[in-house]
Design the sequence.
């Protein structure tokens, strides 16, 4: 399986957010529930996805703050 096909298959399983603001709003809601996530712009579909954040709460907060 090519790398592109693998990424497409993975991408289809993920929730796609149409805007960065929508994805960040969901990430903040999950944060309040204790689920640490950050957003990223998908190079495959052009939409926004969430991924689990790694690190201390401060480093995760910085990841959220540093996102464009």
Sequence:
């Amino acid at each position: 399986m090519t790398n592109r096909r693998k990424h497409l298959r993975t991408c289809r399983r993920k929730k796609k957010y149409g805007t960065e603001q929508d994805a960040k709003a969901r990430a903040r809601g999950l944060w309040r529930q204790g689920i640490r996530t950050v957003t990223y712009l998908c190079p495959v579909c052009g939409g926004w996805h969430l991924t689990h954040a790694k690190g201390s709460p401060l480093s995760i907060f910085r990841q959220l703050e540093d996102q464009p």
User: Anything to note?
Assistant: The chain is about 50% helix and 15% strand.
